[in-house]
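Quick note —
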Amino acid sequence: MICSAAFNGNQAYDKVVASVEHHNGDHCGYELILMDCNMPFLDGYEATIKIREFLSERGIEQPAIVAVTGHTEQVYIDRCMESGMNDVFSKPVNIKSFKKLLEKLGFVS
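Predicted structure written out below.
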């Protein structure tokens, strides 16, 4: 399992590309990406679109990408889904709600 942090959307995208390269183009080592929507340089929405396109072009299985945001208004949720995210996780984060998210996505039972 890979666990890493990115400080902007470009870094998030670059980490996915590097993971695929590390795995000889066969797959992405990330199964779940928690995406901040408001990162600098390239926001989480655009980073998600780029990640989805990169993996799709290569026929690589897509990881779950979940927005982590304080914006819970429907317009933001819709934007997350339109960019290709699987779900939206509201801040503040707590263990109980995070476990429910992992269960919903099928990572734990």
